[in-house]
Structure formats: C-alpha cells, structure tokens
Amino acid sequence: MKPIAYLLLILVSFSSCSKDNIDGPTTPPETMYFPPVSGNFTWETTSLSSLGWKQNAVQPLKDFLAANNTKSFMILVNGRIVMEEYFNGHNASTEWEWNSAGKTLVATTTGLAAQDGLVNINNKASDYLGTGWTSMPLEKENLITVKHLLTMTSGNDDTKQLMIKSNLTYVADAGTRWAYSNIFQKLTDVVAEASNQEFEAYFNAKLKNKIGMDGRWNFGTIFTIYHSTARSMARFGILALNKGKWNTEQVVNEAFITASTTTSQAINPSYGYMWWLNGKSKYMLPSDQTVYQGTLIPNAPADMFAGMGAGDQRVYVIPSKKMVVIRMGQASNPDNPDFAVSGFDNALWEKISAVIN
Question: pTM of the predicted model, to two decimals?
Fold first, then answer.
C-alpha cells in the first residue's frame, strides 16, 4: 500500500502544479516588461487570477465596451497584457486615429528636441518660427514661449482651428489664460526648424523607432493626427509609466516626463504638457472658460494621467498600479464626439474598477 500511496501523492502534486501553470503564477511578476522593438515575438501576459482581479466583472466591462462603440481595448500591468479585446472587425494589426491623444506625442518629441540641445522651452517661439508667425502685435507675440505652446497658455483665439497666420490673433497675454487650441501644431514646426528635418523624420528616429511603435502622422488642413495600432499606443503608455525609460535606455529625460505629467500652470491644474491629470481640485475643458470644481474622472485613480482625444481615444497611465489602459474606437456618444473628457470616462472606470479592486 505504501508505494501506491506514494504514487497517489506524486499524481496529486503533479495535478496541482499543472493547474498553477495554466492559471498563471500565484503572484504577478513585479519586474517591468518591455516588449521587443523588432522581430517576431509574443507579448508577455499576466493572468487576472495572478493579480487577484475579479473574473466575474470582466464580462460586464466587455459588454460596456461593445455597447459604446469601442474598437480596441487593452489593460497592461508592468508592461504585460492582462486584457486585450477587439470589436467590430478590429484586431492587433488594425490602425486607428489617436486624435488629440496624439498631442502627448508632440509634447514628448519637443522634449526630445530640448534634450538634444536643439530647443529651449523657455525661449520665445519666434526664436524657431521667425518673427511674425502670428497676427498679434509684436510685443504680444514675443511673450509666447515654447512652454506656453506646451501648456495651452499662448493667449491666442482658441475658436479658430485652422492654424494660419491670420487666425493666430491676440486674446490675452501669454501665460494668463488657458485655452485648448490647435496652436500646439506649431510645436511640430519648432521641432522641424530646430532639427533641420521634417518633424515626422525626427519623431521616427528619436521616439517611434526607439520603442518599436508602428504608425504614421496625417498632417491635414486643420488637424494633425497620429494613426497606429492599439499596441503601439500601449508602448507609448509604457514609456510614460517608466518616466521616459525603455528597458535599459533613458529615451526621454525623466525630468521632462515628470514636468509633463504634473500641473504645468495654475489656471488649469488638471493639465500638464498635453497630458490630462486626474486627482486635482479643479479642471477646465476645451472651448470653455468655466473652472469646474473636483477631479477630472472621480472613478479613476487619483494619480492617473491620460492622453485624451475626440471620439474617446484614450491612453490612461496609472503609476500606483503600474498600469496602462488603452481605448480606441468611435465616440461612445455620437452627439458629444469632440472633447476628450465626457461621461464615458467615469462610466468606463466604474467598470474597470469593478475588475481590478
């Protein structure tokens, strides 16, 4: 009987180990994972069970995403994929527009130009764009620095979206008024002039290729928009989560990422350098000079920062949870497609929170 009992013990132990291997490790890997930048590879994953998340809350989240015109959705922890869902014919190879979430790419590329000694963000924008790039009085134009372009405080008329000289008119002194505007596009000209090459060429060499992104820029008549897969948006989120570091290389100076993701001016404390910041005491919205009390997305973690674009394009970064969340698709509410923050964010985070908490 003893040999049989011993054999049974081995079989039970083997069965237990096999189940653990199927479900994933009992605790999630704590090390940060960076997917390779080239070649054929499998992106590492982490199971919900290893994180202690609630499986029974996953289907309500998926149903919400499907019902709200989502195309692509990802949750990553420590760089590893926990959830990756596609809807309406999309897959991991399908490109979609970032819309204003791509402003974060422009800001980061400006930071890289500063890092290379090509741009000083405290200098006048006209140092790079030349005198007379606006229709403002010269003394007012000279108040506008590169940093004002990064923080939406240039003092221009934000009702005019086509960024031609005649539309760049004066409303307030730079630094005294926050207003969401397409004037950020002038940063692509700053980088191009300072680097003596096309903005996209500099972006590709200094950012895109460094972290293995795919995608392309569309410099339209009015809008400047990046298109890529959800996984490439996730790569950029991982870079931001790690304060500009990718694997062993500090791609973007940590100090610039920190400045980008903290309050950049006192007028709208929920805005950094093109990143929206949660957990602040008040916020402002595009096309509106109203100051709203409270946090941007109450259901989301207070330390979250996000790139947000029309049609509810999202890259959420949550440092306290080592998490990146990606959402691409059509507007959740077609009657309110234009701004980055809508009721969709809070409703989405209610569903996400039910899974992760």
Answer: 0.90
